[in-house]
């Protein structure tokens, strides 16, 4: 089924780190939409995993997202799927992917996930790069190779499935 099933999903937040985000075009928008998705994931029992690229150089995940203890995966490789233990952490879940940079770490991680047989949903309004043309090229290349390009609202409403969902009103408040 092409819809994102919350029972099979995992929110993957790639490298939204304190020293990187000031350089990202519309970094505030990437953080805001990732925060909405993280809050919705919490409401709907969708697990989340955060990666941190070279945390010694780029710092931890931004405080606005404050991952749970143990929810950050340290890596040095640009593609997280190539890092030892990463695929074990994500299991066979479908990945809803946000983060930076779209044309480097997001792209290489998504390609690794696709190569490993996982479904990847890349959230266009929650990924960024230092230059918009790099972001756009990364999204186009991922789509051409099998990633599904979605938006924050698409993900949230697919996770909800119905206006009768018991957490519908709480989730909708995250969008408005």
TrEMBL record:
<protein>
    <submittedName>
        <fullName>Nicotinamidase-related amidase</fullName>
    </submittedName>
</protein>
<dbReference type="InterPro" id="IPR000868">
    <property type="entry name" value="Isochorismatase-like_dom"/>
</dbReference>
<dbReference type="InterPro" id="IPR036380">
    <property type="entry name" value="Isochorismatase-like_sf"/>
</dbReference>
<dbReference type="Pfam" id="PF00857">
    <property type="entry name" value="Isochorismatase"/>
</dbReference>
<dbReference type="InterPro" id="IPR050993">
    <property type="entry name" value="Isochorismatase_domain"/>
</dbReference>
<feature type="domain" description="Isochorismatase-like">
    <location>
        <begin position="10"/>
        <end position="153"/>
    </location>
</feature>
